[in-house]
Amino acid sequence: MKRVVLRSVEPPRPVRTVRYAECQKNYAAAAGCYVFDGCREFMPSGEEGNGTLTCAACGCHRNFHRKVES
């Protein structure tokens, strides 16, 4: 008698690309206004391999920028 082992095969997951668009940080919140920056360039900061990205134009963290998944 032979033994048969059945394995479930998961379908491949689609590849998602993530990019970060304009800055959503409100620079005039203290004055009760809305002022957003249109920056979109990120530079690594801190130690190499840290993974922290800050905006080259305004210096804010990448999390302040709108995340666009496609």
Automatic annotation (TrEMBL):
One of its GO terms (cellular component) is nucleus. InterPro entries: ZF_HD_homeobox_Cys/His_dimer. One of its GO terms (molecular function) is transcription cis-regulatory region binding. PROSITE patterns: ZF_HD_DIMER (PS51523). GO terms for biological process: regulation of developmental process. The keyword Transferase does not apply. This is Mini zinc finger protein 2. It comes from Hibiscus syriacus.
